[in-house]
Amino acid sequence: MKLVNIKAMLEKARKNNYAIPHININNLEWTKAALLAAQAKNSPLIIGTSEGALKYMGGLKTVYNLVLNLIEFLKITVPIALHLDHGSYETCKDALKTGYSSVMYDGSKEDFLLNLEKTREIVALAKTTNATVEAEVGQIGGEEDGVIGNGEIADPEKAKKLADTGIACLAAGIGNIHGIYPPSWQSLNFEVLEQISKKTGIPLVLHGGSGIPKEQIQKAIKLGISKINVNTELQQANAAAVSEFVLSGKIKQGKNFDPRKLLAPGTKAIQLLVEDKIVEFGSENRA
Ligand code: 13P
Predict the structure, then answer these.
(1) 107 labelled as ligand-binding?
(2) In this model, does residue 150 exceed pLDDT 90?
(3) Domains in the chain and their CATH numbers?
(4) What pTM was computed for the model?
(5) Catalytic pick among 85, 94, 155, 258
(6) How many CB atoms lie within 10 A of CB 253?
(7) 210 lines ligand 1 (CB under 6 A)
(8) Per-residue pLDDT tens digits for 225-274
(9) How far is residue 104's CA from residue 132's CA, in Å, rounded to a whole number?
(10) Residue 205 forms beta bridges with which residues?
């Protein structure tokens, strides 16, 4: 099966009040786990690669071929999109050339007019390969040197201008944070989310999907979130499972030093958590 872009799957999700998981992959095991989870739950899935993960995994071509070959080898029949996460202008162009079915151009640190102009250019380029584009308005927050930032809350007027470029979906800063949410964090900004959703009429993306309480996830989906990015929670699940394997002494038994045995508990934990996310986000049986 070939890769699909994210337009149809996200529009269907928006219309029917659920969200598609965007799973960041980090290695071969992660990719297998995510694909097997989607197949087991009969859900569409977006496989995301950040620029850091691309560097680690051997670049765009390696990842593109890995994902395509695993889809064939594992007999995956549900719709799978391969998406560049937080791409620069140049990496977006390279990803489209390589065969990625979707890219996120992250111009959120640029001056807004430049963000708009470059997003427009990437949209035009993506059209030539039937690929889709995600853009970003406002900024996803994070914690830096102990200073807790709320991220730049997105401006609905700017969101509308980006939506009008022909993007498939829009990531908006609504108080969401990449990584672990600090204990002082309270809530997503639902008021701004609702305004942006009404103004743009397109599927919206929730970055920093790890660690957000379930009720807030459900409310966000109702208000227009159709794609939820998850990475940190899966990293934590993998680390916990591998740690348990080592610290419990299982690694000392038989040939458990074999990397295929050592990494297996982590891979299983990733698969089970992706399956849970599919159920939580409502995309089960929506393939
Ligand atoms: P988390 O690592 O917080 O789950 O965020 C993932 C993400 O938004 C990738 O773009």
Answers:
(1) no
(2) no
(3) 6-281 (3.20.20.70)
(4) 0.96
(5) 85
(6) 10
(7) yes
(8) 999 999 999 999 999 999 999 999 999 999 999 999 999 999 999 999 99
(9) 8
(10) 171, 227
